[in-house]
Structure formats: C-alpha cells, structure tokens
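Two proteins follow. First one:
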Amino acid sequence: MNWNSQTVTVVCSMVLAVSALGVMVQSGFAEINSDIRALHTRVNEVESGLRQEIRAIENRLDGVENRIDGIENRLDSIENRLDGIENRLTRIEVHLFGVEPEAALAPYAGGLPDQLAANACMSLEAAPNFRVTASKDSPAAYVLWTIFSGKAA
C-alpha cells in the first residue's frame, strides 16, 4: 500500500476523531454513573424517611389500641358495677314483695295500687342506707330510690 501525505492525514484525523469520541462516551458514562449514584442516595433517603414515618404511625396506632383497651376495661368495670347494683335492687325487691319482682308485679301491669306504692315507700324509708323519693303527682306510678353505701353508687 502506498502511503501518501493525504492518506496519512485522513487516517490520523480518523484516529483522533475515534479517540475524541471515546473520551466523550467515557465522560457521558461517568456522568450517567454519577446520576445513578445520586438517585440511589435519594432513594435510600426517601426509604429511610418512609420507614420512620411507618414506625411513627405504628407507635400512634399502638397508643390508640392501648386507649381502646383501657376504655374496654373501664366499660367492663362499669358493667360489673351495674350488675352489682341490679343484683342489690333485685334483693331489695324480693325483700319488699317476697318474690321475684316480675312475679310480684304481674298482677299490676297497668300500674301499682296506691297502697302498695305507699307500703314500698315506707319500707324503703325505714331501711338504712336507702333514700326514697316519690313523685308528688302520682306516688303510686313513680317511685325512685337511690342506693347508698357510704357514697352514691
């Protein structure tokens, strides 16, 4: 092959062009790699922040669950106290009427006779730890009593 100056110039120009292209490609890859690393860093930061937020939400939910458990416990306690009050009222009614209240009051489904209501009021007023209040308008139809055991139940 015959190399003349023009051929050498063209070959050298092509070598320089390919070399410059290689430098540009290498620079582009370095830039892409830098961008990828920056994205990885940002993804890790966001992921870490999300984990913290999730932990904070889980902690708040635990607090809410604990409060709900506390409320349920208080409701159970109130229910137990109400059951105790109901049992005491049933014992009082059995004492007053001599039988379970439903059986004693069955004949009076339309209302208590005045004399029965008056007897109940007098019995309760005489008993310690009880206070009776009767409606002034209709003592037979409306008798309230409040149970005391040192304090209002």
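Second one, unrelated to the first:
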Amino acid sequence: MSGHSYSRQNEQPIQTDTNSLTGSEAKRLTIAVLNIKILAKQPGTPVGFKEINYEYHSMSSIELTPSQKKILRALTNLHKESESAIKGEDIAEQVDRNPGTIRNQMQSLKALQLVEGVPGPKGGYKPTAAAYEALEIQQMDDPASVPLEHEGEPVNDVIVEEIDLSSVHHPELCRAEIHMQGSMGEIHEDDSIVVGPTPLSKLVIEGRVDGKDDTNNILILRIDDMVAPAEEPAH
C-alpha cells in the first residue's frame, strides 16, 4: 500500500511505502494527511500548507503530565456519572485544586483535543473520545459487571476494568491492584473492599485499602481473603 506525505519545499506529494511503517507511524501519517485535507478545504488556505503542525501523534502516545492526567481522569469520572458538561469547580473539588488552575489546565487539554468546552449557563467541559484513548480507558456499551463493595455497601457507579495480583506466593505481601472507571473519592486508606465475583473465574477478593493511585484510578488492596471456586472434574 502506498500513501502520500507532503514536502514544504516543493509542495509536491512524496510517495511513501507505508508497509515499512509501524502501526503507530502509519497512524500518525494518516492523522497528518487527514489534517492536511481538512486544512486544504479552509477558505484562503494556500496549497503550501504552511500553517500545518507536522508533530501529529496518535492520542495514546500523548505524554500527559501527572497533573493533566489526574484532571482528565476526574473529568471522565464525573462525566460518566452525569453524562453532561462538568463545571470547572466540580473538577477542582475532585482533585483538590483551585478553579483557576483547572481553567489553565483545560486550555492545554483543549489544545490537545482531549477536552471540549460547552458554552452557556449549563456549560462546562466534556472529554472527547481521544481523552479515553489517551487515558487508555476502554469504552464499552455493555461491560461485564464485576461487583464492588465498600465498607459492606455495594458501589454501583464504578466499573472494575482489571485486577492485577502481586507477590501471590507471599500471603503477607500479597496485594491486588484494582483498575477502575469512576470516582474513588469516598474510598480511604484501610477501608474494607470486596471485589467480585469476576465473570469467568468467579474470583472474589476481600481486603483493605493499602493505597490509592488517583492519577490512574487504581486501588491497592492488602488481601485478607481470595476465593475462586474449584472447577468440577470432567466426567
């Protein structure tokens, strides 16, 4: 398969063998060509495309600062709960920052096309599809439900994405990392958590919160008990 890239010097198409490109390189080239086509359609835009920024990247390769990632994660969590535009003040409260800081960070996130601003009295901010890709959040219409209980009460507004276990050979050091979508604001260190049963293995994990990674939405549990029913022997 052949594609085209463009030269600033002679403004002529250059044949490019995209078969030799990696997946991410081909994706960046596709994004660049798409943006060239969009720019070319704008009234008064010269054919030379001098205004084009050639540093296009796939969204999953965008390097966000920890602060940007934490704010963007808070926005996606709040938007999941309300499905409407989110006020900067609500994001500020979620991440314990002042609203002015949020407004400044939102400008850079909008420039990265990760956030869109919604004007009007009910306006605010919404994450774009690229925001979920940048945070590596899987968007599923009907995800399999993995129950989660906090201090004995079911938590209905979160999705358990992934469970990672470490040091399983050492009971005292064994930890579970629970990757989640949704707010973890009400969950605190040493709180009781029960996760499961999972859809396939029917694994149930009971433990207490050993730490939280608010930037990546991960709960770290000290495991008190972990049970998965044994498979019935084949007849």
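SUMMARY FIELD: Confidence is low (pLDDT under 50) at residues 1-42, 45-60. Residues 23-40 form the longest helix (18 residues).
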